[in-house]
Amino acid sequence: MDHAGEGRWYILNTLTQFEKRVSEALQRQINLDDPAVPIFEVQYPVEKTVEKRNGKTRTVERKFFPGYVFVRMKLYTNENEDNLQNSRDLNENVWNFLQGIRGISRIGGEMSEEDVALWISKPGAEKATPLPTARPQFNVGDQVEIVDGPFTGFKAVVMAIDVERGFLQVEIQVFQRPTPVELEYGQVEKIVE
Protein backbone atom coordinates (compact mmCIF):
# COMPACT_ATOMS: atom_id res chain seq x y z
CA MET A 1 0.00 0.00 0.00
CA ASP A 2 1.30 3.46 -0.89
CA HIS A 3 1.53 5.81 2.10
CA ALA A 4 3.25 8.75 0.39
CA GLY A 5 2.59 12.00 2.22
CA GLU A 6 1.06 10.32 5.27
CA GLY A 7 2.39 10.98 8.74
CA ARG A 8 5.17 13.29 9.85
CA TRP A 9 8.91 12.84 10.34
CA TYR A 10 10.16 12.38 13.92
CA ILE A 11 13.59 12.04 15.46
CA LEU A 12 14.16 9.00 17.66
CA ASN A 13 17.05 9.18 20.09
CA THR A 14 18.73 5.81 20.46
CA LEU A 15 21.30 4.32 22.78
CA THR A 16 24.85 4.18 21.46
CA GLN A 17 25.35 1.41 18.88
CA PHE A 18 21.58 0.66 18.73
CA GLU A 19 20.76 2.77 15.64
CA LYS A 20 20.86 -0.15 13.20
CA ARG A 21 18.90 -2.49 15.49
CA VAL A 22 16.18 0.15 16.02
CA SER A 23 15.91 0.89 12.28
CA GLU A 24 15.64 -2.84 11.49
CA ALA A 25 12.83 -3.28 14.06
CA LEU A 26 10.97 -0.33 12.54
CA GLN A 27 11.50 -1.69 9.02
CA ARG A 28 9.99 -5.06 10.04
CA GLN A 29 6.89 -3.20 11.26
CA ILE A 30 6.73 -1.20 8.02
CA ASN A 31 6.87 -4.44 6.03
CA LEU A 32 3.84 -5.74 7.97
CA ASP A 33 1.85 -2.71 6.73
CA ASP A 34 -0.38 -2.89 9.81
CA PRO A 35 -2.91 -0.01 9.79
CA ALA A 36 -3.12 -0.20 13.60
CA VAL A 37 0.55 0.87 13.84
CA PRO A 38 0.97 3.50 11.09
CA ILE A 39 4.75 3.65 10.57
CA PHE A 40 5.65 4.37 6.95
CA GLU A 41 9.36 5.00 6.51
CA VAL A 42 12.62 4.83 8.46
CA GLN A 43 15.98 6.45 7.69
CA TYR A 44 19.30 5.56 9.32
CA PRO A 45 21.77 7.70 7.31
CA VAL A 46 25.18 6.07 6.86
CA GLU A 47 28.04 6.36 4.41
CA LYS A 48 30.36 3.57 3.44
CA THR A 49 34.06 4.31 3.45
CA VAL A 50 37.10 2.18 2.74
CA GLU A 51 39.49 1.78 5.63
CA LYS A 52 42.97 0.24 5.65
CA ARG A 53 44.18 -1.51 8.78
CA ASN A 54 47.08 -3.97 9.08
CA GLY A 55 47.54 -3.81 5.32
CA LYS A 56 43.97 -5.04 4.71
CA THR A 57 41.27 -2.98 3.05
CA ARG A 58 37.71 -3.19 4.36
CA THR A 59 34.48 -1.28 3.87
CA VAL A 60 33.06 0.31 7.02
CA GLU A 61 29.78 2.12 7.71
CA ARG A 62 30.06 5.57 9.26
CA LYS A 63 26.98 7.12 10.84
CA PHE A 64 25.99 10.62 9.76
CA PHE A 65 23.99 11.15 12.97
CA PRO A 66 25.17 8.80 15.75
CA GLY A 67 22.39 8.19 18.26
CA TYR A 68 19.53 9.15 15.93
CA VAL A 69 17.06 7.39 13.65
CA PHE A 70 14.45 9.26 11.59
CA VAL A 71 10.97 7.80 11.16
CA ARG A 72 7.85 8.91 9.26
CA MET A 73 4.74 7.85 11.17
CA LYS A 74 1.40 8.93 12.58
CA LEU A 75 2.28 9.42 16.23
CA TYR A 76 -0.98 11.31 16.72
CA THR A 77 -4.33 10.14 15.40
CA ASN A 78 -5.31 13.65 14.19
CA GLU A 79 -1.92 14.43 12.61
CA ASN A 80 -3.15 15.44 9.16
CA GLU A 81 -5.52 18.08 10.53
CA ASP A 82 -4.47 21.72 10.32
CA ASN A 83 -5.07 22.76 13.93
CA LEU A 84 -2.62 20.60 15.91
CA GLN A 85 -1.56 23.17 18.47
CA ASN A 86 -4.64 22.82 20.69
CA SER A 87 -5.29 19.08 20.73
CA ARG A 88 -3.22 16.06 19.86
CA ASP A 89 -4.52 12.57 20.45
CA LEU A 90 -1.61 10.20 20.94
CA ASN A 91 -1.82 7.00 18.92
CA GLU A 92 -1.43 4.49 21.75
CA ASN A 93 -0.54 1.61 19.37
CA VAL A 94 2.42 3.50 17.91
CA TRP A 95 3.52 4.73 21.33
CA ASN A 96 3.44 1.22 22.84
CA PHE A 97 5.25 -0.24 19.82
CA LEU A 98 8.05 2.34 20.12
CA GLN A 99 8.34 1.77 23.88
CA GLY A 100 8.78 -1.96 23.20
CA ILE A 101 11.83 -1.52 20.95
CA ARG A 102 15.04 -2.01 22.87
CA GLY A 103 17.44 0.86 22.22
CA ILE A 104 15.04 3.81 21.83
CA SER A 105 15.73 6.27 24.64
CA ARG A 106 13.14 8.89 23.68
CA ILE A 107 11.20 10.51 20.86
CA GLY A 108 13.25 13.61 20.12
CA GLY A 109 10.50 15.56 18.45
CA GLU A 110 8.90 16.41 15.13
CA MET A 111 11.07 17.56 12.25
CA SER A 112 10.36 20.72 10.30
CA GLU A 113 10.09 20.65 6.51
CA GLU A 114 13.53 22.31 6.29
CA ASP A 115 15.07 19.62 8.51
CA VAL A 116 13.49 16.89 6.41
CA ALA A 117 14.84 18.42 3.20
CA LEU A 118 18.31 18.83 4.74
CA TRP A 119 18.73 15.59 6.72
CA ILE A 120 16.57 12.95 5.10
CA SER A 121 17.94 11.43 1.94
CA LYS A 122 15.81 10.83 -1.08
CA PRO A 123 14.38 7.28 -1.46
CA GLY A 124 17.13 4.85 -2.37
CA ALA A 125 19.97 7.20 -1.38
CA GLU A 126 20.60 5.42 1.93
CA LYS A 127 22.59 2.74 0.07
CA ALA A 128 25.82 4.70 -0.34
CA THR A 129 28.64 3.51 -2.57
CA PRO A 130 32.11 2.96 -1.12
CA LEU A 131 34.54 5.84 -1.40
CA PRO A 132 37.89 5.11 -3.04
CA THR A 133 39.83 6.00 0.13
CA ALA A 134 38.98 6.98 3.66
CA ARG A 135 38.83 10.71 4.17
CA PRO A 136 41.66 12.08 6.29
CA GLN A 137 40.63 13.59 9.58
CA PHE A 138 44.10 14.82 10.40
CA ASN A 139 46.07 18.02 9.87
CA VAL A 140 49.80 18.64 9.89
CA GLY A 141 50.86 19.33 13.48
CA ASP A 142 48.09 17.22 15.09
CA GLN A 143 49.00 15.15 18.12
CA VAL A 144 48.07 11.49 17.56
CA GLU A 145 48.36 8.18 19.37
CA ILE A 146 49.34 5.04 17.48
CA VAL A 147 46.67 2.37 18.08
CA ASP A 148 47.81 -0.35 15.68
CA GLY A 149 51.14 -1.84 14.64
CA PRO A 150 54.55 -2.20 16.30
CA PHE A 151 54.47 1.32 17.80
CA THR A 152 51.07 0.91 19.55
CA GLY A 153 50.80 3.30 22.48
CA PHE A 154 53.37 5.79 21.17
CA LYS A 155 52.43 9.47 20.90
CA ALA A 156 53.33 11.19 17.63
CA VAL A 157 53.04 14.43 15.67
CA VAL A 158 51.69 14.47 12.09
CA MET A 159 54.41 15.83 9.81
CA ALA A 160 52.83 15.17 6.36
CA ILE A 161 49.67 13.66 4.84
CA ASP A 162 49.62 11.54 1.67
CA VAL A 163 45.93 11.63 0.69
CA GLU A 164 46.35 9.58 -2.50
CA ARG A 165 47.96 6.63 -0.73
CA GLY A 166 46.11 7.04 2.58
CA PHE A 167 49.23 7.42 4.73
CA LEU A 168 50.48 9.83 7.38
CA GLN A 169 54.11 10.73 7.99
CA VAL A 170 54.45 11.05 11.77
CA GLU A 171 57.34 11.65 14.10
CA ILE A 172 57.76 9.58 17.27
CA GLN A 173 60.41 9.64 20.00
CA VAL A 174 62.51 6.43 20.06
CA PHE A 175 65.33 6.48 22.65
CA GLN A 176 64.84 10.27 22.96
CA ARG A 177 65.42 10.78 19.24
CA PRO A 178 62.81 12.00 16.75
CA THR A 179 62.07 9.16 14.32
CA PRO A 180 59.87 9.49 11.21
CA VAL A 181 57.32 6.70 10.67
CA GLU A 182 54.79 6.20 7.88
CA LEU A 183 51.38 4.92 9.04
CA GLU A 184 47.93 4.33 7.56
CA TYR A 185 45.03 6.54 8.72
CA GLY A 186 43.47 3.67 10.65
CA GLN A 187 46.61 3.08 12.71
CA VAL A 188 46.36 6.38 14.59
CA GLU A 189 43.79 8.29 16.59
CA LYS A 190 43.76 12.03 17.07
CA ILE A 191 44.45 13.18 20.64
CA VAL A 192 41.76 15.63 21.74
CA GLU A 193 42.83 17.92 24.56
How is the CATH topology of the largest domain named? Alpha-Beta Plaits
Number of helices: 3
The largest pleated sheet is described as:
5 strands, antiparallel
**Radius of gyration, taken over Cα atoms and rounded to an integer in Å:** 23 Å
Strand content: 35-45%
Alpha-carbon distance between the two ends:
53 Å
CATH class of the largest domain: Alpha Beta
- The CATH superfamily name of the largest domain is NusG, N-terminal domain
Number of strands: 11
Sheet with the most strands: spatial strand order: 10-9-8-7-11
Structural class: alpha+beta
Describe the protein.
The chain is α+β, with helices and mostly antiparallel strands and 193 residues long. It has two domains: 8-119, Alpha-Beta Plaits (2-Layer Sandwich), CATH 3.30.70.940; 143-190, SH3 type barrels, CATH 2.30.30.30. 15% of the residues lie in helices and 37% in strands. The protein has three helices and eleven strands. It has helices at 19-32, 92-99, 113-119, and strands at 8-14, 39-43, 46-53, 56-63, 68-73, 104-110, 143-146, 155-162, 167-174, 177-184, 188-190. The protein has a five-stranded antiparallel β-sheet with strand order 10-9-8-7-11, with no helix packed on it. A four-stranded antiparallel β-sheet has the order 2-5-1-6, covered by helices on one side. Strand 9 (167-174) and strand 10 (177-184) form a beta hairpin. The longest helix is centred in the first third of the chain and has 14 residues, at 19-32. The protein is elongated. The model is unreliable at 123-134 (pLDDT under 50).
What is the topology?
Blueprint: E1 8-14, H1 19-32, E2 39-43, E3 46-53, E4 56-63, E5 68-73, H2 92-99, E6 104-110, H3 113-119, E7 143-146, E8 155-162, E9 167-174, E10 177-184, E11 188-190
